[in-house]
Design a protein that fits this description.
497 residues; mainly alpha; Growth Hormone, Chain: A; 3 domains; 21 helices; globular; disordered N terminus; disordered C terminus; transmembrane; antibiotic resistance
Length: 497
């Protein structure tokens, strides 16, 4: 029975089930980025990791994940997004099982790498499938709100769930828990999601471009990761960064000459897309350090334990959920994505600025909790607005690529921001210790500097959002491609070439 003959309530129910399946797959991927962090000491003791090698339990996942998002998104456009999504779920679930069964450090690292591949393939097309499934502006805004909540709150849930599972059942279960969820999600996805016909190879798949972009993003992510451990001036960081730049330059040249480029240059002609990606990169770079650095401040300076620290970041996730699920769709429909984004970025900058004044003898309720309010509200509003803007200029044939670009920017921006802010905090702490400050004074001084720099990143994002995401005219072609006519506020946000 076609969608035109099925009653509207049945269509809505089918779409909601499909959205739940997509978000379940995305939640697994997001959770796995943080759930392992609290289990690292147990993993080290069990498998005999050295202190220097332990970080690779995280890095072995992050490098393929960040490197393959863009390529996987394009594959979704070429060969069908449902096929790519289900394939990613199968790979991710199988790798999760291997991670839980690992009896050696090498086995775990190999399985983590494969898990990162599956995570990239799954995540790369999720947003594109949501956007193409929900064409009515109000429904689309609500669906993107759900997706944004999963993206934003998944990391915090991972920290809490990782601690609980590790204590109650052992570190193996942080991976085993993915298996039943992944199997159910893959089966339901195969049955419930509508199969889309990809554009196919056409004049030929840009195999060289695929190789260049993959092998440029992977050393780029590695350079960012290495910077956190070895410094930005180390040979590893500089060598990896140089290799990434050379390969990226070769990729750009290839895309300008290829008949059927992997990343068509037209993608950057849309003001909304380019501006949203740049804004997203700076916002994530500034915001992502909050979770990591605030946790360190609460533990090392305020003396809170793991459970108290996890509870301390819950208000941010709750506010993100309330904003993205309930208020953001209404505000986006009434005021438009640009206006909502401006206010959201101002709130995030204010929250980080408040953390930039944390004292040595502070308390959670007086010095940390007040900042969680503007951070949670701002991020819960910013993510749906940015996701909608980033997808607004993409044609149906390019939506998978746009989704992959959005997620790539998020992953690279988060890694780069965390590396920069962590390095600044460590450098400032070392300087203060050298000058005779106490341990707590030095640590707090380092965290304050990092939060202030993070606020500057977010203010830079606000400047781009105000100057680049201006109000262009909406063309007839754009209106026909995007489905039903949106509200006046939404019309102002549609990007044209």
């Amino acid at each position: 029975m076609s969608a035109r003959t099925v009653p509207a309530p049945a269509v809505r129910t089918s779409r909601r089930l499909a959205l739940a399946i997509l978000c379940a797959g995305q939640l697994m991927v997001i959770l796995d980025g943080t759930i392992v962090n609290v289990a690292l000491p147990a993993v080290q003791e069990s498998l005999g990791f050295s202190s220097s090698a332990l970080g690779w339990v995280v890095n072995a996942y992050l490098i393929p994940f960040g490197g393959l998002l863009l390529l996987s998104g394009r594959f979704g456009d070429l060969f069908g997004r449902k096929r790519v999504f289900v394939t990613g779920l199968v790979v991710f679930t199988g790798a999760s099982l291997l991670c839980g069964l690992a009896q050696s450090a090498t086995a775990l690292l190999v399985a983590r790498f494969v898990q990162g591949v599956g995570g990239a393939v799954t995540s790369s097309v999720t947003l594109a499938m949501i956007v193409t499934m929900f064409t009515e502006p109000g429904e689309r805004a609500r669906a993107i709100g759900v997706y944004s909540f999963v993206q934003s709150a998944g990391g915090t849930l991972g920290l809490l769930l990782g601690g609980v599972l590790t204590r109650a059942a052992g570190w193996h279960w942080i991976f085993f828990v993915n298996v039943p969820i992944g199997v159910v999600a893959a089966v339901l996805a195969q049955r419930m999601l509508v199969a889309e016909r990809g554009t196919g190879r056409g004049k030929g798949t840009d195999a060289l471009g695929a190789v260049l972009i993959t092998f440029s993003l992977m050393p780029a992510v590695y350079a960012i990761v290495a910077a956190a451990d070895h410094g930005f001036g180390s040979a590893r960081t500089l060598g990896s960064g140089l290799a990434a730049l050379v390969l990226l330059a070769a990729f750009v040249v290839r895309q300008a000459r290829a008949e059927n480029p992997l990343l068509p240059p037209r993608m950057f002609r849309y003001r909304a897309v380019s501006g949203a990606l740049a804004t997203h990169a700076l916002m994530i770079s500034g915001m992502f350090g909050f979770q990591f650095l605030a946790v360190l401040y609460m533990q090392k300076v305020l003396g809170l334990d793991e459970v108290q620290t996890g509870a301390g970041v819950v208000p941010v996730s709750l506010l993100i959920g309330i904003m993205s699920l309930f208020l953001a769709p209404r505000l986006l429909g009434r005021f438009g994505a640009r206006a909502v984004l401006w206010a959201a970025l101002a709130l995030i900058g204010a929250g980080l600025g408040m953390l930039g004044r944390i004292p040595v003898d502070g308390t959670y309720l007086a010095d940390v909790f007040p900042a969680t309010v503007p951070l949670g509200i701002g991020f819960g509003l910013a993510m749906p607005a940015l996701a909608g803007l980033a997808m607004s200029g993409a044609t149906p044939q390019d939506s998978g690529l746009a989704s992959g670009m959005f997620n790539t920017v998020q992953q690279v921006g988060a890694s780069l921001g965390l590396a920069v802010l962590s390095a600044l905090a460590a450098s400032r702490t070392g300087t203060l210790l050298h000058d005779g400050a106490s341990r707590d004074e030095a640590l707090t001084g380092g965290y304050r500097l990092a939060f202030r720099v993070g606020a500057v990143f977010v203010l830079g994002a606000l400047v781009i959002a105000v100057t680049v995401l201006r109000t262009p005219r909406r063309t007839t072609r754009d209106a026909s491609a995007d489905g039903p006519a949106p509200s006046r506020a939404a019309e102002a946000d549609a990007g044209t070439p």
